[in-house]
Amino acid sequence: MTKEQRYQGYTAIEFDRPAERVLRLTLNNPERMNSLDARGHAELAEVWRDIDTDPQVSAVVIRGAGRAFSAGGDFDMLDEINNDFKARARVWREARDLVYNIINCSKPIVSAIHGPAVGAGLVAALLADISIAARSARIVDGHTKLGVAAGDHAAIVWPLLCGMAKAKYHLMLCEPVNGERAEALGLVSLCVDDAELQDKALEVAQRLADSAPGAMRWTKYALNNWLRQAGPIFDASLALEFMGFGSPEAKEGVLALREKRVARFDPDLAV
Question: Is the entire prediction scored with pTM above 0.85?
Answer without folding.
Answer: yes
